[in-house]
Design brief:
Four Helix Bundle (Hemerythrin (Met), subunit A), 0% strand, 112 residues, mainly alpha
Length: 112
């Protein structure tokens, strides 16, 4: 794997770690009521999407290794360009069910 691709994957993994750290022990209600936490999480989701977008542009086979890359990039675009229509329930679902598996997949790629 090219060094730049590894750097991008590491950036995404670190952002996943931060999302998990920021939301540890929170309920949806606590998350949704904190503008600070929602903003911080959304920023990390933007970083995940952008870093994986750049990595996949360098290595098109990455999409086979991380099948949700198009959705991840789409979320990044929605957060940035359609910030006014972001569904907090969707963000919470991503936090609750998708960030940890993505983080683990990225860790595996970094170690391979």
């Amino acid at each position: 794997m090219q060094p730049d691709i590894k750097t991008r994957i590491l950036d995404a993994k670190i952002a996943c770690d931060k999302v998990m750290e920021f939301t540890k022990g929170l309920s949806y209600e606590s998350f949704n009521q904190s503008a600070l936490i929602t903003s911080a999480v959304e920023r990390q989701l933007e970083i995940i999407g952008e870093s994986l977008n750049r990595a996949s542009a360098l290595d098109h086979s990455l999409a086979n290794k991380v099948p949700d890359i198009p959705k991840i990039i789409g979320l990044r675009n929605r957060l940035i360009h359609g910030y006014d229509v972001v569904d907090d329930h969707l963000i919470w679902d991503i936090i609750s069910t998708k960030i940890k598996p993505l983080r683990d997949k990225l860790e595996m790629l970094l170690n391979s």
